[in-house]
């Protein structure tokens, strides 16, 4: 199946949002000591999502409620909103036959 440019851009943003969700869930798994922070899967998702989440998270005070890092959750919600908005803007600016 050949994807158009619009389809590839939409797929990219959706995969990025999915990676953000996985990162948050894996951070909870690590905080409950069910996985080591040195796990390659955990490190991969950290490397992929750090450029997006870190600039937001460093402006939010680091607070945790039980095992949930509130700054990371707020960063996820803001990033999800921003990436969805950016995806919509890019897709509406491209011609429909691309």
Describe this structure in words.
The chain is mainly alpha-helical. The protein has one domain. The protein is about 70% helix and about 5% strand. It contains 3 helices and 2 strands. It has helices at about 5-30, 40-55, 70-95; strands at about 65, 70. It has a two-stranded antiparallel sheet with strand order 1-2. A hairpin with a 2-residue loop joins strand 1 and strand 2. The radius of gyration is 16 Å and the shape is elongated.
Compute the average pLDDT: 85
Q: How many strand segments?
A: 2
**Poorly predicted sequence stretches spanning 5 or more consecutive residues:** none
Q: Mind summarizing the main beta sheet?
A: 2 strands, antiparallel
Give, in spatial order, the strands making up the sheet with the most strands: 1-2
- Radius of gyration (CA) equals 16 Å
- In DSSP terms (H or I, runs of 4 or more residues), the helix count works out at 3
């Amino acid at each position: 199946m050949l994807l158009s440019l619009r389809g590839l851009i939409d797929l990219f943003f959706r995969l990025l949002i999915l990676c953000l969700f996985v990162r948050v869930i894996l951070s909870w798994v690590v905080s409950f000591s069910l996985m080591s922070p040195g796990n390659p899967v955990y490190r991969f998702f950290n490397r992929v999502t750090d450029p997006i989440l870190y600039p937001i998270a460093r402006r939010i005070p680091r607070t945790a409620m039980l095992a949930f890092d509130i700054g990371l959750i707020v960063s996820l919600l803001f990033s999800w909103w921003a990436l969805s908005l950016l995806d919509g803007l890019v897709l509406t600016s491209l011609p429909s036959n691309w």
